[in-house]
Amino acid sequence: MTEVTAHHGLFKDTNLHVDDTGGTGRPVVLIHGWPLSGESFAAQVPALQAAGYRVITYDRRGFGRSSKPHGGYTYDTLTEDLNALLEALDLTDATLVGFSMGGGEVARYFTRFGSGRVRSVVFAAAVPPYMMQGEDNPDGPLTKEAAAEMAAALTKDEDSFYDDFTRQFFSVNGELKVTEQQRQDALGLCKQADKKAALACMEAFGTTDFRDDLPNVTVPALVLHGDGDGTVPLDGSGARTHASLPNSDLHVLRDAPHGCNVSHPDEFNQALLTFLAK
């Protein structure tokens, strides 16, 4: 456990909470989804470490155990935070695994910072290429009406919103695919999020267009997605990202919800390890 200073402010720094297994293995950086924290990868870290990898998780600014500044919740700034982490730990030949919202930082990273430190990437249940549906993005899986309803519900009552959200996060067609304790664990992580950060990041992952970023991803890529994902649907996100990346593999987790790394940990981990071994 350590902290990385992602931004030096005039009066206060922005620090990221980092968990690093250490060791000499190739680094794998796990970038969590909204509105969770690095602890959401509890089922992945031991498997990756046992396979010989150095595993790094961190809490995005505004979430988990990291600083909760007033601003800085655009993807440009969030990607600067990721780069600050890679530089502070001097990581090279790294694999970036972006889950859900974290897939946005992975896509934007190559536009901002290139591929010098990165060996490969994974888009897991990830939001690229562009969530918000519109005239120029008819296949976007998120309507403006649905986005407005989510923001209003979170603004009105955080507890009620997160309770409903975690049920959807782990369900396929209304059937919960994890234990109630696993859902409660995720709910606890949600409640660590700063409300202003959660609202700002909701807007960021819903409205940021990554279609121009994806062509800059020139390293091998794995797209890992559940076919029962009702939060970030496969057809509107993962399948389109795969089609945009000629150098990518697609692994579809059958009957898996958005929280597929928890509901299908063995298959998720095996797909990840198989890709890493290439």
List the helices and strands and how they pair.
Blueprint: E1 2-7, E2 14-20, E3 27-31, H1 45-50, E4 54-58, H2 75-88, E5 94-99, H3 102-113, E6 118-124, H4 144-156, H5 158-169, E7 171-172, E8 175-176, H6 180-190, H7 195-207, E9 221-226, H8 238-244, E10 248-253, H9 260-263, H10 265-276
Parallel strand pairs: 3-4, 3-5, 5-6, 6-9, 9-10
Antiparallel strand pairs: 1-2, 2-4, 7-8
Helix pairs in contact: 2-3, 4-5, 4-7, 5-6
What does this structure look like?
The protein has 278 residues and is α/β, with parallel strands linked by helices. The chain contains 10 helices and 10 strands. The chain has helices at residues 45-50, 75-88, 102-113, 144-156, 158-169, 180-190, 195-207, 238-244, 260-263, 265-276, and strands at 2-7, 14-20, 27-31, 54-58, 94-99, 118-124, 171-172, 175-176, 221-226, 248-253. The strands form 2 sheets. An 8-stranded mixed β-sheet has the order 1-2-4-3-5-6-9-10, with helices on both faces. It comes from Pseudarthrobacter quantipunctorum. Keywords: Hydrolase, Oxidoreductase, Peroxidase. Residues 27-259 form the AB hydrolase-1 domain.
Main attributes?
278 residues, alpha/beta, two-stranded antiparallel sheet, 10 helices, 10 strands, 37% helix, 19% strand
Low-confidence stretches: none
Q: What is the rounded Rg?
A: 17 Å
Proportion of residues in helical segments: 25-40%
Strand arrangement, major sheet: 1-2-4-3-5-6-9-10
Shape: globular
The class by helix and strand makeup works out as alpha/beta
Query: Mean of residue pLDDT?
Result: 96
Number of strands: 10
Largest sheet: 8 strands, mixed
Count of DSSP-assigned helices: 10
- How much of the polypeptide forms β-strand, as a percent range? 15-25%
Span from first to last CA?
Answer: 29 Å
Order of helices and strands: EEEHEHEHEHHEEHHEHEHH
Protein name: Alpha/beta hydrolase
Keywords: Hydrolase, Oxidoreductase, Peroxidase
InterPro entries: AB_hydrolase, AB_hydrolase_1, AB_hydrolase_fold, Epox_hydrolase-like
Pfam families: Abhydrolase_1 (PF00561)
